[in-house]
Amino acid sequence: MENAVEARELVKTYKVKKKQGLFRSLQENVEALRGVSFKVKYGEIVGLLGPNGAGKTTTIKILSTLLLPDSGTALVAGYDVVREPDKVRRNIGLMLTIEKGFYGKLTGRENLEYFAALYGLTKQKAVERINYLVKLLELDKLGADSKLFEEFSLGMKARLSLARALLSDAPILLLDEPTLGLDPPSARRIRELVKELAHGERKAVLYTTHNMFEAEIVCDRIILINKGQIVAEGTPNELKERIPKLKILNILIRGGNDVKPMLETMGLKYDVKAEDNGILSVKIHLRKPEELLDDILKMLVRNEFEIISVKIEEPTLEDVFIYFSEGTK
Amino acid sequence: MSFIDILRAEYRLVYNDVFRRKSVLLTTIMYPYIFTAFTLFIGYSAGSPSVFTQKMGIEPALYMITASYMLMSILTSLDDLLWKPLFDTYTGTIIYILASPVNRFKLYAAIPFPRLTLLVLLGFTSLLPVYIYYFGLGGLLLSLLIMGVVALGCLIMIPFAIFVASSVHRVGESWRILNVVRPLIMIFLGVYYPRIYMPLGAYIISSLIPSSHIVEAAQRLLIGIQSGVYVLFAIAFTLAIIYIPISQFTLSSWERKKVKEGVRTS
Prior knowledge:
Helix content of chain B: over 70%
Low-confidence stretches of chain B: none
Oligomer: heterodimer
Number of helices of chain B: 13
Distance between the termini of chain A: 33 Å
Structural class of chain B: mainly alpha
Distance between the termini of chain B: 29 Å
Largest sheet of chain B: none
CATH superfamily of the largest domain in chain A: P-loop containing nucleotide triphosphate hydrolases
Strand order of the largest sheet of chain A: 6-7-8-3-9-10
Mean pLDDT of chain A: 87
Order of helices and strands of chain A: EEEHEEHEHHHEHEHEEHEHEEHEH
Largest interface: A-B, 38 and 29 residues
Number of domains of chain A: 2
Number of helices of chain A: 11
Strand content of chain B: under 5%
Shape of chain A: globular
Radius of gyration of chain B: 19 Å
Order of helices and strands of chain B: HHHHHHHHHHHHH
Helix content of chain A: 25-40%
């Protein structure tokens, strides 16, 4: 499969001036990216995850030609972001901010018409495309044709921002936290749409988010970035398997004898908590609970416990994110 | 993408904005009168109208309304190009403009057009009634002639305005600098203070501004002197053409600097 985006050893250092007294200022270097390399294929949604200041937005800015890297190369649709910025711009749809980025005294449609002209759409093509996008994102139902942008809700602004990213029907979408601060229905609609675009229309999507739940359900592959470096990369399941966190076997039981000595004789790490109606919640920490599940259940039945429910809890992507972003290997 | 498409987009952007802010429209219409009243008030309190008429060859009120109209119209190219990048930074639209494949020179050349058109047309509310009052029906033709010349001055100002704006915006906190640059250009245009009375140094600087020649041509036509008008037009055109490649260079250099530093997204 052809690569839509290919970043190789991207390095970017920001020079930050700090005031020292009235006239002097001290220059400080902040390393935003320290050799970042990754690829995004067509038809794939790649999530770029990391804590604040990790380098996610810097990466998106470089790929969208809004920032020059100090070294390294980045190819977008096969074009170099430094040497061929115009060709890159023709192949990307960009969504960097939700709250801002439009003219307040223009309606949603008028804003889209303005940006359609900047993206080189002819008048007729722009009208057709805007009609399609307004329907697709249900902006027509929300009154985007008559309401001024300054009267829009955050959800409407997000939809309009995504509509602009889709205006030129570019094969590559760069979306920076597209659902930040949105209400659940708007966030869900945007997530669904991004998946349709990638898997249905085979667009390549680079998607940054802080929302782990979202990353897990939207992204085909995840890149974890911390302090300007990629610390892990893989599918959500692959990443979960890479952290040494134990799974939790959660069993609700009632009656029987004292459960603690039994668990101790088996050499298990556990927590027991009393719930309502004489129910006990037993949480056993295991690397592979499936292997011991049968023995544990048999032992509980032998000791006259009534088993109410059994659940195996997987480590979440949030655990993965915290594990890698804190560097606690 | 064609210049016409960009122009159409700019017209819709500006007119939707202007007509939805009624106060802006009202102050635009009022501006020539307010400025004329202001300058006449200062002038009458400091000097004699008859001396002015003797020196300039025209009534002060007639001169000042024409000067205010010319200044407002011609300076709009510069104002729009100085303020638009700051406005786009404030609204957050600058990132999407810079990330778009639009030809930067075409875009920046198109930006002043809508307001220029509006302001040149405001000659009907400012010049026309005053000229008819002073010259009768002949005032109609004269006001149309001056409006045409001013329209030319506006267009000729665009490459120079792109050059100034892109040079100013290269510097950090450019809004501080533009507050200095703007009044200076206002003086050097020679609308209120004619170039012929400027000291040599100021005259030379003024001569580098293409539209200052158009302003002088308009002033000559107003007082009925036609000699040398065509030469002034020729100089203005030549200068405007010279500024095109210079402004293209400063514009791309400004963008390069901006992209090297990183365009702010918040």
